[in-house]
From TrEMBL:
A Pfam family assignment: N_methyl
Highest rank taxon of the organism: Bacteria
InterPro entries associated with the record: N_methyl_site, Pilin-like
Stated name of the protein: Prepilin-type N-terminal cleavage/methylation domain-containing protein
Amino acid sequence: MTRNKSSHNDGLSLVEMLVALGIMGILAVGVARFSSNFEKSKARSTAKTHTKNINKRLLKFVERDMKFQTAFSVQDNGLTLEITRRKTFDQADTDATYVVRYVTRCQQIPNDIRSILRDRVYAVSRLKQAIYSSAHTCFDRLKDICNDSTYPQVFIEFDDTDDRIPVYRPNLFPDFATQTAKRELRKGTAGTAMCSGESGGKIQVMVNSAYLLSAGDSSESVSVLSDQILLTTDNIAGVTLLPNE
C-alpha cells in the first residue's frame, strides 16, 4: 500500500509539474506579446509626437515671417512660398529686408536609408503609394513629379545672412543626408511637404508630414499628419488655427 501511495503521489507531482509548465509558457507568451505591443505603441507615439513638432515648427517660422512681411507670393502650384520681410523686429524699420523661401522638393532616398526602411518592413515603393496620395493636399501636388525613390522635403532658403536675420533651425524638414538626420528617420518622420494658397486677403498654409509606424503590419506602415494655419496678409494681427485633416 505504501509503494502504491508513493507512485500515486509521484504521478500527481508530474501532472502538476506539466500544468505549471504549461501555465508558465502561456504567461511567457502573453508577456512577450504585451512587451512587443507596448514597444510598437511607444514607437508609434514617439513618431507621431516628433512629426507633429516638425509641422508646428514650420508653421511657427511662417507665422513669424509673415508678421514682418512687406511682400509675398505663392508659386509652383503652391509648393513655394516666397516672403520679403524686414530684417529686424522693429516694425518701423522698413528699409532693411530679405527674402525667405519655403520650397517643397522631391529628394532621392540615400541607399543607407533604404536599408533602414526595408528593416522596418517598409518597402521604398510604398512611399509614393502612401504619401503622394490625393487624400493629402500638399503631397497630392507632388505625386506626378516625384518618383518611387524619393521623399518630400521642405527647404527654407534666404538670400542674405547677417545678425539681424532670425534663426531658422533646422532649415530642412526632414534631412536624411546626415547622421543626425538618420536619427530623425528612426524617430519616424519619412517626409514633409508645405503648400500655400491665397484667397480673399488671407493665406492658408498647410503642412503634410508622413511618419513610419512600427514594424509589423506593412499595410499600415505610413501615417500622415496635417496641420494648417490661416493668416491675414496685412502684417498679421492674428492667426487662425484650422482643424487637422
